[in-house]
Each structure stands twice: as structure tokens, then as C-alpha cells.
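Thought: the user wants the 3D structure for the chain below. I'll pass the sequence to the structure tool as-is, report back what it returns, then summarize two notable features.
Action: structure_tool
Action Input:
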Amino acid sequence: MKQFNLLTLYLCVLTIIIMVNPIVHASDHFIANLATNKAPYVFEWDPGRTKCAEIILPESSPDVSANDDNCSSFIITKAVELPNGAYQICVQSISPSPGQFWEVHYGSMPPLTAFGPTACWTIPATATPPFEIIHYLNDMECNQFVSILDPETYCIEDAVTATNENCRFEADITIDLPYLSNPFFTYVITFGDGSPAVQSSSSTLTHTYAQEGSYEVCLTYLIPNTETGFVTCCYKIEIMNCCSGDVVHLTAIAPCWIATLEFDLDPALFPITVEYGDGTSEVVNSSPVLHTYPSSGCYEVSYIYEPFPDEIVKCMELVCLPACCLNPEFELNAILPGTSCINPEYEISNVACPNASLSTTHLWEFSDGTIFEGPNPPPHRFTNFFDENGEVCVTHTITCCNETKTFTACASHEPGAYLGVPGGTLNIDDILPFTGETVREFIDDYESGDATHPLLIEGTIRINKPTIFLTGTGTWNMAKDAEIFVDGSGTGTQMAFMLRSRTLQSAARLPIGGGCCRWKGIRSQGLTRILLIYGKNMDADYAVRYATPTEIVGAPYPVLTSYYHEYLNNYYAIKSERQKVTFTGFHHLTMDGAPHETLICGCDAVNAIDFRGVPSPLSIDIVPSTFTDYSNVIRNYEQGFHFENTSLKVRGFEIRDLKNYQPVLGVPNNLPGEAGIGIDFRQFSAPVSALDLDYMHFSDFNGQDSRSVAVKDFIYSGHHTLTASAAVPPINTSISSIRTENLAGGYELFTGVTGRISGNIKQNDIATNGGPDYGFGIHGTFNSAENELEVKDN
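Observation:
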């Protein structure tokens, strides 16, 4: 810092005394600690001079200015930490003089520099505050140390507010800072419009903006009692335009050029004078208002009103009355590929009159009965209708000024009866909106259609009332993820769903080229009675699935009756999750998981009958009511029966051709090595369980990647009773009613340390061919005591 002699001091003080300056700026002085252990100095700065006197002030001079106590040739206009951790500092010189130069020093790095009366710098996040700013102005050199404080901690909410009660974009800004009570405190304000920053200590300011809008007003100041701590706090203010350009709205035109105009003004501002732009005007006392124009076209509508006392303004907005567009032509095309494998959506494109117009109405009539009003219909899926001729059509009608034009476009579409949409639900008693039929009546009408006009079902059909199809025949072609939901929840009585001579299959079996359409199957919830006889359930994730029960805690239970019925190409034939099911009349059934001759959607399967978590002492009894030997066939699955913590009594099954398959998507899969198992019984947590089997024939298991076995009985916990006593013994020419052949092992038994098994294996005919590595008749691993198993006469 330059040193001055007594003559310089005298001349500078004399200059100050002689000069008369009626305007005093807070930036006309600054406090600087020049040397260690010296009192603060005040420099009076004259823009026309290059040197100033040094005047020693008392030690008690307050230190609360907007800048630090080092320099007043410039002000800090911004001091913030950026989101990436870097710092940004902006400055503004008090003088507009040319030749100004700046440096910012941080650590040992080369300084950042700038020229001119204003400057901004971004300082790396690795730098450590405080940062030294040096300002070179003519022969003067002023420095300032700056640390940046956290606005979340130091900024005061709503410290800046503004009112705009005139039409000149003039804002009265109020500053509400607690530090303003100190006469030595100052702040720097930026107005958000690019105008120069201002240093002030006042609680009110007035600023005129160039136009209306939202502005960010920022205050930057030194926090009292800190030496270098600056904070920048920003606030939003709104500047109103008395002519906002969004007051006059054309809301209707009817019948032709009679316009309804809305004026979006405070009702207290009425009456107003309106000039309609066609040479007419009137005083309007309220909004809306009707006005008849001579023709279509654009009109300059002016309104004259008094938004503030004694301030009358005239505002103009353009209002356009569209001319009639009466060309109804368009194109209709399928959207491929789509979410449905049987029924794509169709889009309307190249509409000749695509824009909405208050003077024009658009009506679109789809050949499935759907009606849409508006200029541009969304993509549409034709459904709940019968397509006899292999095409769908849309008719477009345009009306404008009592004149109407019509156009119809058609597109190819697979013939058939279409019901439902992907992801949607129809109740069986719902009335279809355009046919007037119920869903049940629609199915009755079209289920007997041949492959050229099939019944095609999308989404979910909910059986919410007893539904019985016991006469005639029919084929239901199911789309991807479609399902039949038999809902017996909360009814108190069994919800009946009965099918005789019906085939439920994937629509992929039709010659429509839709790709794989594996459907979900029949889902039962609550108290239901399902009858499936003399028909087929095909191509589903689960032919029949019992979901987790909601309210069934005691008898009666859901009932499944099935005979002379085929379950083909389903990942699971029957699956239950914790739900007890009563089986009746269960005979002459074929459950073929992956029939190669009718392959649809892959060549894999999981388990034929799968029950898990049905609590003891309940048991699943699958015993034919009309017993005729091995009338039920299970083949081409990984497992015939999979039961966990669920007791099973089973009779009358021939289980063959089990093998390992690839995992399938969308359903639970067996673990590796768990294929080729006739009955896979596991008890993990039930206190008691039982497996009782007879009239069971296990044969021709493929043990690839597994050890094939007729019965796998693993008891990890609790007491288990195994009853495998053949009613027909293998004596003389008789064949045992429990027999195995052409598989690796007969019975594989296991108990955990808390599991116990008892029972018998008697009079079985166990023939295996697993060889020295895999072959066995009965194999047991017992990790507990008190197991009692009688094995005899086998």
C-alpha cells in the first residue's frame, strides 16, 4: 500500500472540504487494515484523483459493511458454491473508468485474472477459502478476502418481497434483514435483469424493469462478526404486465361466426370497453360476451380498462375465427407389431383436417360401434364385435356452418368374434356397450365358429355369477396373458364354472400369424366349483390355478371335478398355493405337459399337479370316484406330483416319460436335478403329514441331469406317515398295483434331524435300470431316531 506524507494528507483533506457532493454512496468509503497492530484506515476516494489521504479511525469503528474491511473500489455481487463444489465470485467496480484489472489468488496456484469494470470467476472445488481479490484501478490497488458461506444456514426466508402496482414495470422492493438496524451494514443487490448491482443499506428500493416476467433478485453481504464470510441469497419476484397478451379467449363459435369471448380479468375491473376489430365496440359489464363477426378471419380485439386508480390502459390481442375445413379424408392402418398377438391396434393418420376448430365438429364411427368426438382419435383396438368380412372400417363426419362431409376408410383384419382387450377385465354378466349383449351371450353366439371365424378372447373374463356351458360344443381361443378368473371371494356360496365339450386353447393354433400366445389359464379364488369334462385345456401357464385363499378357513372348500378331459401343453396342469381343494370324479384324464405332436410356444413343462402349504391335518385326496385301474395319465413333465407341507392321498395314475426341461418364463421352475420324479413329497415345517398311494404305475423316466425316481419322500421336520401298500400284490401272474419300470430308482427316503418317518412299502413291484451309479430299489438316509418303516413282500 502506498505511503503518503503530511502535504499529501493536507491536500487530500482540503479537496474533500472544498468538494460539494449532494449524493453520498455507501461505496464512497472503505475500511482497510493496512498493517499489523494498526487502527483501521478510511480512504476517501475521488474518481478524478489517483491518491488519497490516510485517516486513522478509532479502534471501535464497526466492521459490518457489504464488503470486507480492506477495499471500497469495488463490491462483491455474487459469492456462491456451485453444485459441483466449485466456487463462483462476481465483482463490480465502483468506477466505470477504463484500464481496470483484477486478480483472484487461491493457494499456490496462478491467479485468475480479468479486465473491465465487472468480472466473474469460477474457482476449483479443490481450492481452500478465503480467496483474495485484488483490484487495480489507475494507480490504486485494493484487495478483499472472501469466504463463501452456506445459504441454507445464513439466508433468511422471504427477506425480499416486491409489489408492482402500476403498468410501468416499476417494482417497489422491500428488504427485510435483521442487520439493517445497524447503520453501518450494507448489502449489494442484483435485480435479475442484467442491470448494474447496487449497494445499499435501505429497507426499500424502487427498480424499473424493461418488461414483465419472473426475476431472481439476489442480495450479497458480509455476515456481521465474520471477517471474510459472504453469503448470496436469491429470491423470486413477479413483474406484471397490464396487457399480458393472454386475457381474451375465443371459447366457442356457434352456429357460424357468433363468437363467445372470455375476458380473463378480475370481475372488479369491469365494466370495460371492447373494440372487436370489425369496426364495432361496446361497454362490457361482465365476461363472457357474444359477438357476431361478418366472416372467418383474424380480428384485433382491444379492451380498455383501469387496472390501477387513474391509470387507464388499452390492450390489444388477436382473435382468429377459423374458416371451415370440410375435407374428411384420412388413412386407417394396423400398428404392427402390437401388444396383442391376435388383434392389433389401428391408427388414423394423414387426416386432411387435423386441427381442432371451435367452428368444426368431428365425429368418428368405428365398425365395432365405438364413437369418438374430436379431430384426432387415439389408436383403437376393434373389439367386442364380430368381424365377418375380414375388414374394419371407420367413418369420419365433419360439420361446419351447417355443412357436412363424410368419408369412410377400411383396412384388412382377421375375421372372427373379438372379446376383451389386453389387460382389461370383463365380467361374465357385463353388457357389451355396442351390441347390447352380455359377455355370456356373446360367447354363446360365437364359440362354435370354425377356424375362419373363431372366438378370440383378450384380457380377463371374470366369472362373477354361476356360469354353466354343458350343452353344445365350443372353442375359446385365448390371447397372450388372457385368463378366466373364477371369483368366489365373499359370496358365501360356491361360484360355479362348468364346461363340457369346450376347448380352451391358445390363439396361436389359428392360422392368423400372431406368434406365440400362451395364456394364463383358469384362476380360482375363494369358494368355487369348477367342472371340466369331455374337453381340453391347452397352452396355458396353469390349466387350473388356485390362488392364495382370502377367507376360506374351513369346509366347504373349492371343488374340482374333471373326467374324460385333456390337459395339454400346460406348464402346470393344476397348481395350488395354500388352498385346500376337494377333487371329485377325477378319472380318464390326460395331462401331457409337452406333447410334441401339438407343440405351441416352446417345448417345456414343469409339474403336472403341484400343491404347497395346505395346512395339516387337511389332505388332498385325488381318488377316482369311478375306479378303473390307471385311468389317469401324466406324461412329458419334470414331475408328476410336487407336494410341499401338504398331505396327499392318490390313486389311479400312470406316470411316464418324465424328463428334464429347460426353465420357462413367468412361472416357478424346479431346481436343477429335480426332474424325472413321479411324486416329489417334501415336509419342511408341518408337524404331521402323510403320503398314501396305490394303483400307481411309474415308467420310462429320462434321468438326464437328474436321478430319476418314482417316489421322493424328504421329511426335514415333523412326523410323516408313508403308506405305499399295494392292494394287488405281485403274486404269480398278478401285477402289483404299485409298480415301477425303466427308471433309475424306486423310493428315495430322507429325514432331517427333527424329521421322523413311519409307515410301509409293501407288495410293490419295483424294477429299475439305473445301473451301478444310479440304480436302486429303495434308498434311505435317516438323520433322526425312531423311524419305523415296514418294507416287505416287494
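Final Answer: Structure generated. The chain has four domains: 1-241, 248-321, 331-413, 606-662+671-794. Residues 6-18 form the longest helix (13 residues).
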